[in-house]
TrEMBL record:
The EC number(s) this enzyme carries: 1.3.8.-, 1.3.8.1
All residue ranges annotated as the Acyl-CoA dehydrogenase/oxidase N-terminal domain in the record: 6-117
Molecular function per GO: flavin adenine dinucleotide binding; short-chain fatty acyl-CoA dehydrogenase activity
Substrates-to-products reaction catalysed: a 2,3-saturated acyl-CoA + A = a 2,3-dehydroacyl-CoA + AH2
One Pfam family this sequence matches: Acyl-CoA_dh_1
Domain Acyl-CoA dehydrogenase/oxidase C-terminal, chain residue ranges per copy: 229-377
UniProt keyword list: FAD, Flavoprotein, Oxidoreductase
Root EC class: oxidoreductase
This protein's name: Acyl-CoA dehydrogenase
Acyl-CoA oxidase/dehydrogenase middle domain residues: 122-217
Alphabetized InterPro entries for the sequence: Acyl-CoA_DH_CS, Acyl-CoA_Oxase/DH_mid-dom, Acyl-CoA_Oxase/DH_mid-dom_sf, AcylCo_DH-like_C, AcylCo_DH/oxidase_C, AcylCoA_DH/ox_N, AcylCoA_DH/ox_N_sf, AcylCoA_DH/oxidase_NM_dom_sf
Gene3D superfamilies noted in UniProt: Acyl-CoA dehydrogenase/oxidase, N-terminal domain, Butyryl-CoA Dehydrogenase, subunit A, domain 2, Butyryl-CoA Dehydrogenase, subunit A, domain 3
Species whose genome carries this gene: Lederbergia lenta (Bacillus lentus)
Entry's family note: Belongs to the acyl-CoA dehydrogenase family.
Amino acid sequence: MDFTLTSEQEMIKKAISRFAREEVAPGAVERDRTKAFPLKIMKQLGDLGMMGLPFPEEYGGAGSDTLSFAIVTEELSKACGSTGITYSAHISLGGAPIHMFGTKAQKERYLPPICSGTSLGAFGLTEPNAGSDAAGTKTTAVTDDSTYVINGNKCFITNASFAKFLAITAITGDEKKHKKISSIIVPTDSAGFKIVDEYEKMGLHASDTTELILENVRVNKANLLGKEGEGFKQFLQTLSGGRIGIGAMAVGIAQGAFEKALQYSKERQQFGKKLSAFQAIQFKLADMAMKIELARTMVYKAAWLKDQGKPFSKEASMCKLFASQICMEITNEAVQIHGGYGYMREYEVERMMRDAKLLEIGEGTSEIQRLIIAREIGCQ
């Protein structure tokens, strides 16, 4: 495996790093405080050609790769976790299912708005009683001539308030005799479709997290993604790709917290010398740097495998699990190094610590990742 980035990847990294530093980071504290969605930033990313980064050029994308997507997600998350998760979900949960499973007609209709950023990407999977057990879906789509009539609830859905359409999972077969989960593209302005934005979250305050209520929502059967009954397989593949995004997010947030802690340790004086001169602090920072580099390598490997068309489910779960755990650990250490100031919003590491926790939960909890890894290594 060659760890050297291509000239295109280097160019993307340099451009997005500068953009994140100049356009994303300055407003991160205020967005967290006011819960203001980074819509302007998303539009700017669209202008930069980043919103359709890994999708084909024929649909308005940039024709790039998963590794480039991971690089962009990391850099954005380093500056602002809310911006990072908005972007990651847009690509990996919103655009990816349509790209992977949609017909040519569906791609021609739905991918261009995704690639331009005029519609943000979202995916309606999680339900009040179907989180880790996503196969426990209760939302139904009953056939009525040429339409599906959809009823059900979805929760914790990212970006839905800014999506013109999204794929949702629903039962299309007889639940008692033959439960078939399918994916259906649903316009968010459909009659009976309601988006509720009332969650009070621990972190990622500037990201959009909503509940979806579907009451007799009618959708043409042409909006079926793939074939009936393929929804379970589809969302497993979608989540595997999404875990690379979560891993990249975790690396970015951890890197941001590490850099804040390193900078503070060089400036803060205690007992007549800088914090960075104390061996205890040096060891903390060394361990933080090592774990971030390991996590980044794991994310890059999972992305590389996906780009090579090789199996990557195990590596995606590994990178997501490890990166999210070290992110939580590193943000905690960053707060500790800052002491009392780390508890204050203006120093930003407390926000990073709050944002980090979701990464151990979203796209499959740490416990679910261990089950996947155990299955992949032959334990089951």
